[in-house]
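User: Here's a chain of 54 residues. Predict its fold as tokens.
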Amino acid sequence: MNFWLVTSLTLIGFTALAALLLIPVWKFLSREEKVAEKWTKETHTDSERVDSSS
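Assistant: Prediction complete.
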């Protein structure tokens, strides 16, 4: 009985800790990916303007 209690509490604790640590990282990476996509589009647009004006 004690074995299953300790095992289940450890598993729940580990899962909670992993979520606590990984969710902010996931949100940060998602935000950075959006910024990078916006930057890439702006850079591509700027390079098209330079190419067309030459």
